[in-house]
Known about the structure:
Layout: H1 3-11, H2 27-32, H3 37-60, H4 70-92, H5 95-101, H6 112-122, H7 127-157, E1 159-160, E2 163-164, H8 178-210
Antiparallel strand pairs: 1-2
Helix pairs in contact: 1-7, 3-4, 3-6, 3-7, 4-6, 6-7, 7-8
Amino acid sequence: xxxxxxxxxxxxxxFEYNPLFVLVLGICPSLAVTTSVKNGLAMGGAATFVLVxxxxxxxxxxxYIPREIRIPCFIVVIAAFVTMVELLMKAYLPPExxxxxxxxxxxxxxxxxxxxxxxxxxxxxxPLASVLDxxxxxxxxxxxxxxxxxxxxxxGEGTLFGLKISETYQPASVMIMAPxxxxxxxxxxxxxxxxxxxxxxxxxxEFMKHD
Length: 211
């Protein structure tokens, strides 16, 4: 695998195959935990750790996992790393942060992004490519969570990373509630789809010009 191929394998999860804004996966936790940037970073970091480690182990063991029972095997591997990351978070992160993430850390076991990459990529590719794929998609999802949570926290509480931005700003509390999550996600999805459409039209014009 060349350096260019490695870079492409890593960056595709951030841009071309962004889990949230392109593939539209993991919407439930993306809406539920993004009330603050700290929550977004913690959730994204936990999922990235599980994604990278499970991709690596599944790729290494792919020759020994029978196709007929591959899904239960994937779940066992993923669950082992979720248990590990949950215990580490409870040991080293503030209790209020763990409480705000709630059930969504254990639910990483059945996170559609992780299951999707295990099935469609790690089970069919070599360990290095699988690690890069997991790291790229994990980073892409983490950045997406941070973008949504920073907008919601800023507008809904007037803070960023818990720090007050302005004494005069009156927070719009709806932004840290469920409707605010849908509004922000919808606007961002619309923006990224619009950019994709503009890019496609530009490519089509270039193609027609050369043709």
